[in-house]
Specification:
heterodimer, A: 209 residues, alpha/beta, Rossmann fold, Arc Repressor Mutant, subunit A, 2 domains, five-stranded parallel β-sheet, elongated, B: 534 residues, alpha+beta, Beta-Lactamase, Heat Shock Protein 90, 3 domains, five-stranded antiparallel β-sheet
Chain lengths: 209, 534
Amino acid sequence: MMRPSVVMLLDDDPAVRRSVSLALNLAGYEVKAYASAGELLQGLDPTQPGCLLLDLRMPDMGGLEVQQALSARGCSLPIIFISAFGDIPTTVHALKAGAVDFLEKPFSTETLITRIEEALETDRRQREQVTLRQNIQQRANQLTPREQEVMQLVTDGLSNKDIARKLEISPRTVEKYRARVMEKMQAASIADLCQMMAALPGSSGEFRP
Amino acid sequence: MKASPGPADPRDADATTAASGSERHPAGIPDDQGYRNLFALLCDWSPIGYAVLNTEGRFMEINEAGARLLGGERSDWTGQSLEPLLDPAQRDRVLAHLRDACAGRVQTPDEPCVVNVRLPSGGMDPTRLQFFSQRHPAGEGRLCLTAFQDISAEVQRQESERQRQAVLDALSAQIAVLDRNGRITAVNGAWRRFARDNGASRELESGIGLDYFEACLDASAEDPDQIAARAREGIQAVMRGIEPQFTLEYPCHSAQSQRWFLMTVTPLSEESGGAVVAHMDISERVHVEQENRRRREEVAHAARLSSVTVLAASLVHELSQPLAAASLFAEAAAALARKGLVDHNQLLSVVGDLHEQVERATGIVQGLRRFMRRGELKTEPDELARRIHGAFVLVRPLARRKRVRLELETTDELMLVQVNALQIEQVLVNLLCNAIEAIDRAGSPVRNIRVVLEQLGNEARITVADTGPGLDPEWVARIFDVFETEKETGMGMGLAISRTIIEAHGGKLWAETGVGPGAVLCFTLPLLSRGVKE
């Protein structure tokens, strides 16, 4: 099972830090509060599940710069920007860079928790996705080059006959490879296998939704 | 009887008669002859001239004082006529006076005859002689007894007194002359008219002899501005020679109109002490000034409102911080209370936090509301450093948003100035906002504004120096024009109005050039002497 999630908060206002921490603690969340971007970037553990609450306007480094710095480090924690005066250009910029959400100060505890739940759900899904992808990759790595070739053609939608012709082998041999691929990849059906392929980086992506 | 007024030698009388008289009368009372000798003695000692004159004005007898008064010895005048000394125009009047006296038609000496005579020693001005004459008991209607004295000095004194009064009366200010004890020794016509028109008592109208402080100053029971006390102190300071002059402007409204007066206290003279207190009606000037102030504040108010558009975004942000915190603290308090087993201390601490944030929000709203309000017209003694802090409170959110540091450097926090607090804050807000915008627009790597408050002589000087790109020298000449602006925001009119405000406070506002890379703007304000607030 995954580690418990932590809400990481960055706001230079001590009262905001204290009140957000208190509200979230009372709702059962663990909170780590940072007063400056430097503190946050230094103390952040990318493997820690959770989400980020970032104030857009910080005296030394703004929320957007923090977002860029995190993404440069390959950290994909969902970010909720909290802002008192979210002007549109900044907002668009932040959304393009992958922010999940915006919260305008002041906000209620309920709204905060709803948005945090959504962000944590996103984080969970992303992390599951990553785990899943890693598993698929591991399984795919066990395939022989010929098996990989067959898998690619199968998921491309070619029939056994077409594959046999293309690879200049007999349809029966294709059938054998195909069974081995299904077994090694732990796929229940061709559709299942297609989904796995779609999840892998560098896949053709034809079957992506 | 003829020789009785003039004994040959007063020393004879002293030596013989008075001494012999006291011999015969143990109580020291002389006999008749002794009396006559004593009066003869007095006659010659007296500074008054005594003479026996005939109807033609010829001196039959004259004492020494009389002869001296006319310039000569007794022998020079005995047998001589008075006529050559007389102003021809007055000759007949004098002779008529003498004839009347000789004939016994002048019963009392209450009707003196005053004549101008030209004495050889008299210089340019005629000497004024006053004659009291009466019939000579043994003169058979042709002789009279005359006492005369020089009253030129007295006449001159009266004349200068009349002139002084005329000068006082000619002045439109209400004037009272005070002696060293603060008693009124003279008032002028304007004073009397003012007293009459304003229903003052008869005593106050004539003024003479009244204690000025009791009569005028303490009469005003309601005196929130301590005008009476300040006037009293001022008058006393002038009387004691501590101050060379004292002035005080004060309101004195009647039922019909709003009036203001300027009180001026000038010392009378070093020997006599005392002072001249003049009250001048300056209502017209004050009305014009008030109208100017009102217009200036109207423009200043409009400029404040437009500068709020610059500050608004950052102030909203600033306001939402405590509101966000307060709302979360309130919900947290409710959540704690719902938990059943309540930790009272924790709950109290959360409510305390909540309260603190509400106060913080209130402070921001109040500051903004104060800044936006239509301001007062009057000025008050104020600490300049407080105005700088007030401006910082308004501008700091913008500075934070633009990541500009604000620094204040001062040696003396207690610099008192007489200002309209809001307008001075407005000037500071304007200068600070300009500096922030300049730094921000240029994207300066170093983002600082240094405000220096210092005392230079009897002025306070405030310098606002930024690390922006500085002012274009061509621009400097024009930045104070009403319509010149470097930016599209509402602060365009700011510098022109700031300068107007500072100049109305008796100071100057200018841009320093060639000091540093950034812009340096300075303004001065006259310092209040420390005594004023004490």
